């Protein structure tokens, strides 16, 4: 079956003054995949994402999201995407349920806060304030809020940075669940094990250019075919496996 393209980026360029941060990149994201943008700091990942999210102007190139051209109908694109808010957007006086109701109102969408919080294991925190949450709970809430407007695509920027292994694996499960329910996920991460576990395909971005784009398996096989040999013998478990085996998979923060 032909896969449907839900994001089409062609020859995207972004200049900040004399500096070209994004140098004519092209890529497609297919409907319902988990697509990763990987790359060192300063590679141009956030710039690229923010342009697609309509939050930043591009210099040139075309961006089409679910058939909608960014140059023609940015407002229509906003309606079908889910973006993580800066935590400063979470009014300190409101609890999680009230925040979700507020955002639902802003999007003009009926929303069931209990159901959404339940999906992210936050039902016990319905009446808590954002600042009272642990790191993992904050990340889960932030991802929950991207779903309020029932978007077709969500964008997650380093969603597991700073989390302990239990919280990180829990978030991986949740991201897979969101995808299973039909949402396309675009994610940035610096954790290659995370990209390997979650992403159907990933683009490796460096200095404003895409230098590789394939499935994690495809990228690894290509390197191996070039004769790459690991210095250290690969063992059947990682140190993280040891950690999880010893401390269990249960979330600790709750
Ligand atoms: P990444 O998300 O991959 O870390 P960014 O897209 O944030 O990369 O940044 C790409 C490059 O563009 C960096 O060199 C950064 O310093 C520069 N840059 C980002 N935003 C601005 C801005 N508003 N003005 C000038 N330069 C910027």
In short:
The chain is an alpha/beta fold and 254 residues long.
Protein model, in words:
It contains nine helices and ten strands. The chain has helices spanning 45-52, 74-80, 96-107, 113-119, 135-146, 165-180, 192-198, 216-225, 239-247; strands spanning 5-16, 19-30, 34-38, 60-65, 68-69, 81-83, 153-157, 184-188, 201-206, 209-214. It is globular, with a radius of gyration of 19 Å. Strand 1 and strand 2 form a beta hairpin. With 254 residues, it is of the alpha/beta class. The relative contact order is 0.16. The protein has a six-stranded mixed beta sheet with strand order 6-7-8-3-9-10, sandwiched between helices. The chain has two domains: 5-80 and 151-247, Rossmann fold; 87-149, no CATH class. The structure holds adenosine-5'-diphosphate.
Give structural attributes.
254 residues; Rossmann fold; 2 domains; six-stranded mixed beta sheet; four-stranded antiparallel beta sheet; 9 helices; 35% helix; globular; binds adenosine-5'-diphosphate
Helix and strand layout, with pairings?
Elements: E1 5-16, E2 19-30, E3 34-38, H1 45-52, E4 60-65, E5 68-69, H2 74-80, E6 81-83, H3 96-107, H4 113-119, H5 135-146, E7 153-157, H6 165-180, E8 184-188, H7 192-198, E9 201-206, E10 209-214, H8 216-225, H9 239-247
Bound molecules: adenosine-5'-diphosphate (ADP).
Protein name: ABC transporter ATP-binding protein
Domain ABC transporter: 7-232
Keywords: ATP-binding, Nucleotide-binding, Transport
């Amino acid at each position: 079956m032909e896969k449907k393209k839900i994001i089409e980026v062609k020859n995207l360029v972004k200049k900040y003054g004399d500096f070209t941060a994004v140098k004519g990149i092209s890529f497609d994201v297919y409907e319902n995949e988990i697509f990763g943008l990987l790359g060192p700091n300063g590679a141009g990942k956030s710039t690229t994402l923010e342009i697609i999210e309509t939050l930043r102007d591009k210099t040139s190139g075309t961006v089409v999201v679910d058939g909608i051209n960014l140059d023609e109908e940015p407002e229509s694109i906003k309606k079908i995407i889910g973006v993580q808010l800066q935590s400063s957007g979470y009014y300190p006086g409101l609890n999680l349920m009230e925040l979700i109701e507020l955002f639902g109102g802003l999007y003009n969408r009926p929303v069931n806060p209990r159901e959404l919080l339940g999906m992210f294991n936050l039902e016990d925190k319905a009446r808590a304030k954002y600042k009272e949450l642990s790191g993992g709970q904050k990340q889960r809430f932030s991802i929950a809020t991207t779903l309020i407007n029932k978007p077709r695509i969500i964008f997650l920027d380093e969603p597991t940075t700073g989390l302990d292994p239990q919280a990180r694996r829990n978030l991986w499960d949740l991201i897979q669940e969101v995808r299973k329910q039909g949402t396309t996920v675009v994610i940035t991460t610096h954790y290659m094990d995370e990209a390997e576990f979650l992403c159907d395909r990933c683009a490796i971005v460096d200095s404003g250019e895409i230098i590789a784009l394939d499935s994690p398996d495809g990228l690894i096989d290509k390197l191996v075919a070039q004769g790459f040999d690991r210095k250290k013998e690969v063992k059947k478990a990682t140190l993280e496996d040891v950690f999880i085996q010893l401390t269990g998979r249960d979330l600790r923060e709750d």
